[in-house]
Amino acid sequence: MSHTRLVELAPLVLAAADEGDAVARALVDRMAAEVVAFVTATTERLGCDLDSVPLVLGGGLLRTRCAQLRNGIRDSLHAAHSDPRIVVPGTPPIVGALALALDEASARTPGDAREVPLEPLAAQVADLLG
After folding, report:
1. For residue 13, how many C-alpha atoms fall within 13 Å in the half-sphere facing its CB?
2. Most exposed among 80, 111, 119, 129, judged by the fewest C-beta atoms under 10 Å?
3. pLDDT of the residue at 113
4. How does pLDDT run across 60-102, given as a tens digit for each residue?
5. Helix 118-129 crosses helix 93-104 at what angle (to 10 degrees)?
6. Sign of CA dihedral 60, 65, 66, 67
7. Where are the beta strands (DSSP E) in 1-130?
8. Distance CA 103, CA 93 (A)
């Protein structure tokens, strides 16, 4: 199966997990454990405390509405840290990258008449990504 086709299955697995499918739930539990392991390894390597920095969950699968995935990540992090701040942005991470690119190109400077508002840009990106 191609990578593209495999990626298309992810939303279906997440939905099936929330509907109670045992195999899908096991896959989502494993994904939550992998995310927590990655976060733990990264914060340890950086020497930062997860209680003092926000954890931003970006990317399509981490921004999903799958309750089992969100709860699995949150519960595991809360078990290991006293008060981790978990942030799930409302817009895809690419919007921030586009804003930085616009800033770099001087197309979006404060007070400039050519300033590009981020909300329409986020909506356009969301439409493109489906």
Report:
1. 16
2. 111
3. 47
4. 788 778 889 989 998 998 888 877 888 888 777 777 777 777 7
5. 130
6. positive
7. 54-56, 85-87
8. 16
